[in-house]
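#structure-requests
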Amino acid sequence: MALQALKNINRSQQVTNAEDAKNSFPALLERFKGEIERALPRHINPDRMVRIALTAFRMNPKLAECNPRSIFAAVVQSSQLGLEVGLMGEAYLVPFKDQCQLIPGYTGLIKLARQSGFVQDIYAHEVRVSDEFILTLGLDRSLEHKPMVGSGGFPATDVERGAVAGFYAVAVFKDGSKTFIAMSRSEVERIRDNSRGYQSSRKFKKESVWDTDFVAMGLKTAIRRLCKYLPKSPELATALALDVVADQGREQNLDLLDAAEGSFVPVDEDEETEAEETEAEVISPAAKPAKNQDGDPVLKAAVYAMEKAATVEALDEVYIRLEADFTEESLEFLVREYRRIKEKIKLQ
């Protein structure tokens, strides 16, 4: 049985240098490919997934020091989201302590936004000091960007255009309407400086991705900011949550079985403790009111609407409609409730 094979992997001990090579991540990935195939959605090609995972693994020697279960979980979670790890830039396998983190790239966030069904197009660009950039806010918002023109009317090189002054991201909805955000370089750098990952790199005098790919990280920051204001699919919401957790320097705690079943939702460590205590109790079919639910009538109404869903598909539709109406803090609560209700539906 597919999930039983994944449970066997999940119970396996962490690989150490003294163990045989047959228990390495590449060997385990090949050995359990068939079982993983049966646990994954039909549209995912297991052979391609294995090749991509092995390539990403071999490109980063530090991953060999990670718990193989966490690498499996990251690969399976990436597949569930529909993102390819590695050179395409959709997602990356990144070592964090003895665990493997799944970090979505900005091209991955763009892909998930387009696949949500609400967004026709989404893109981001950097603005350089010699470009023409006009931003108008108020009742009639507009954004105009004309990159510096070079020889023959073609775009000038990045060197000719000068240093990066800022970034912007634009989303075009299915009905043709548009929305955008614009961020100065100083604002992006402030977000960078508050990132625990970047702070850790500075502390230990290591080169970070902000040092090697500042423009790409700036584009991702703009896309991530824009996505907060877009209606999101559960896949995009999960990818954004994974990215935020990693950016805050916390463990994602990817679980292999949750990833394979498509039910993984990143939560804070304190939230995990609270969830474990809740699961230990006997919960009635009606379920207990969630924390903070009574204090916010809007959230209470949203949870009630999700509770009325009879199937996971119906729940997803309700969640997607609700998500755009909440702030980041309230959205975290809504995601937890979505996961709780989804599990209850599965048990019915």
